[in-house]
Amino acid sequence: MALLEVEGLRTYFKTQEGTLKAVDGVDFTLEKGHAMGLAGESGCGKTTAALSIMKLLPANGYIAGGKINFMGQDMARVTGEKLRAIRWRDISIVFQGAMNALNPVKRVGEQIAEPILLHEDVDKEVANKRVKELFELVGLNPNRVREYPHEFSGGMRQRVMIAMALACKPRLVIADEPTTALDVMIQAQILELMKTLQRELELAMIIISHDLSVLAETCETLCIMYAGKIVERADSVEVFRNPQHPYTQGLIAAFPNVKGERTMPGAIAGNPPNMIAVKPGCRFADRCSLTKDICLNEEPPLIEVLPNHYAACHVVKPR
Amino acid sequence: MAKDIISVKDLRVWFQVRRGFIESILSEEQKFVKAVDGVTFTIKEREIFCLVGESGCGKTTTGKAILRLVEPTGGEVAYFGPGKEDMMKEMVDVALAKDNIDEDQAERIMERGGISIRALNKKRMKSMRQKLQIIFQDPYESLNPKQSIYDIVAEPLVVNGIGANEAEREERVTKALNDAGLRPPKNFMWRYPHEVSGGQRQRVGVAGALVLDPDFLVADEPVSMLDVSIRSEILKLMLDLREHKGLSFLFITHDLGVAYVFSDRIAVMYLGKIVEMGPTERVIKNSQHPYTKALISVVPTPDPKDREDKIILKGERPDPSDVPPGCRFHPRCPSVMDICRSEEPKSVFVSPGHSVSCHLLTMQ
Hints:
The structure holds two protein chains of two kinds. Chain A contains eleven helices and twelve strands. Chain A is of the alpha/beta class. Chain A has an eight-stranded mixed beta sheet with strand order 6-7-8-3-9-10-12-11, with helices on both faces. In chain A, strands 2-1-4-5 form a four-stranded antiparallel beta sheet. The two termini of chain A are 28 Å apart. In chain A, 50% of the residues are buried. The mean pLDDT of chain A is 92. Chain B has a domain at 267-363. Chain B has helices at residues 21-26, 59-66, 84-97, 103-112, 122-129, 149-159, 166-179, 186-189, 198-210, 228-245, 256-262, 280-285, 290-297, 338-342, 359-363; strands at 4-16, 32-44, 48-52, 74-79, 115-116, 132-135, 216-220, 248-253, 265-270, 273-279, 347-351, 354-357. In chain B, strand 11 (347-351) and strand 12 (354-357) form a beta hairpin. The model of chain B has no long low-confidence stretch (mean pLDDT 89). The chains are: A alpha/beta, B alpha/beta. The interface between A and B is large, with 42 and 40 residues.
């Protein structure tokens, strides 16, 4: 059985203008020890989809439908103490801005020990020993556990965040734009660390990023999201070698590749649709160059167009 | 051969480190953060010159120092662009009238060429700034949310006292919005920043820079806050401006991919100094400095076979207030030699226009 099965997930937000359908029917499965990437433009619902799994939604957000089957439990229905027990012990998260996610007036060691003490019946000594081990695991000097966040550089703070996420030996780690605020060299260090940890600890990971190349380097599978839906899903190398959905093709073409040809990257004209008043038909139709009549009326389902390669587009036929 | 527009020679920007009371008693040595520490380059007319490097390498400070948005500590910045003769003539005439220089000196000054930006007084600097403008990184924070797009774009005109009346100003704003690709301008002029998309916001920033009709633009990470799908629209806009208005750019970015596809020449900065500079194609495809090679090797790439020879440098960039002796890169360099620890490498040309500061190249 898969570690995580998400089926028809819908996450909506109540706003003054109406209901914003941030995630509107998303399906995926994640096996133990696998890494999956969620990519897309800002506002496409990738972060909301991932946060829904942990039920870390803002007050006006709610799961409107679907199942989130995690280790035999439907996370969409779990609440209260039960939910608290799962959070951080089984599923943890690495937030984007390590700068803001850490408590500036608390020693980093204590911050990492906190979830251990909360979730496990251990004393401080055991927890502190674990913190030191975690520091070593993520490549930090264990003698620095008593320092404060401001004494660490950006890259090291992100390592602290990763150590914290691993504190209770979770099965699944969600990483939301884990390297976006970092320099390219530090990014490379962190990505290397994440890959090693994933392999050694058999972690399942969901990595969220707008940078497709970052995901290609770290994930086995890649889901491309657009306007609250997954429009393409396949093995990450396959997505790059053989993108099927016009949106994926556009996204890939928009990335300048320093190791490839020196050509001006393409742009995808227009803006993503308004998620409060979603029009019928394919959500990408307004920006697509291949739009036909059917695209304006009927929403394309996500179907297997090549072996293990899914796309939601009327123009792409299964082969 | 194209003419130079900006020449920067041995530019230095040092910031004093504030000391506590006790520190100031105990040690006499004043520490400096050497953000820019001896940078030399020239930018030609209609050229896109790119500064790349990690955060804290001094690339933004270099850009700001050229416009004197931070005051340089040392070095020269000279302007050779359009309008230079008139401005110089006026200055020379003033000096002649005051008998500060004689006719011979005046002639020599006129022949020599550039206007030294650092030597300008406040009033002249103000008129110089009309020729030199900047586009900022964050289109969300650099626009005043309480001002309409018209007010934002017209502000430089008001500040500089340009445009005799409102109608004339409106005409210039319309033209600037149009040049920045916000068409038709009437649809955008009276809206507020939050009412337009991120890409359009960055275009408002561009319009604000264009309204004074500049010749040279510093673009500080103009696309790094934007979604990939709209980045190239802004890049193309800048190419357009070069094509049709003859603008030159100092383009500052940490994104080697953008630098690669977009610029004519690249300079790679590390800890306040340029370590490698040359035509874009050569710097990227035939890089010589170990730092440049490492930077390029770690750019994430979709193709697994491009990932094989990554050079991941250990540690993070050192503190610019405590620059290592010798080559500043030596503590992180994979090919460090004895000489690197004591002697600063000189810049040498490896091919026409392609210079590198590394001992590896002078040893052979």
